[in-house]
Amino acid sequence: MSDDLPFRAEYAKSNRSSCKGCKSVISKDTLRVGRMIQSPHFDGKIPLWYHFTCFARTGKVKTTGDMAGFENLRWGDQEKIRKLVEENAAAEKEDDPGEGLTVQYCPKGGKCGGCSDKIHKNDLRIVQSESGKSTFYHLGCFANHRGSEGLNMDLKKLKGYNELTEEDKALVSEKLAQTYGLILFVAELFFSALSFLYSSFRMTLQFLSCSVVYFNN
Length: 217
Hints:
Layout: E1 7-11, E2 31-38, E3 45-51, H1 52-58, E4 67-68, H2 75-94, E5 101-105, E6 110-111, E7 118-119, E8 124-130, E9 133-137, H3 139-146, H4 148-151, H5 166-216
Parallel strand pairs: 1-4
Antiparallel strand pairs: 1-2, 2-3, 5-8, 6-7, 8-9
Helix pairs in contact: 3-5
């Protein structure tokens, strides 16, 4: 079914849609490409619309079969999309991203690999892929699991981040930043304690040294 495909291509029906890439209006009858995401409000998908040129900079479409409405486009526009598919395939061979992290809306209920509690449908979750196996986390549980390694990152490079709503992007940034800040605070407190113990140890050694010299005299 076309509703299950990750992308959609069509000609804009009006001037009311705006591009998620450049934020400008997509003019009526202009080719627009939508990245389909899970709606946070109902059981279905909604498109995030882009100008074709804006989509080409970020859209990792691997085959024209992944794009609903492709067969209804003009020949010239079909050729542009075919060329994009070829370029993406070539780039993937040169630099295979392999395993990594993804943030997404949970398509169905699942279990958190951190706290073992349920991740409800449509909740935000982090997917960690490693050696062909995927583990799912609540945002907070992922931060606790990965520590500073999982938090000190450019969120724009996190797979799926650009497909979230602006509200959820802010939530992800806030959640991870808060936990990262806590880790930095604990680390700073730990090293301050070590510094205090070291200073106390040096003072004790100096006192003992002076005492030995005094009694020897």
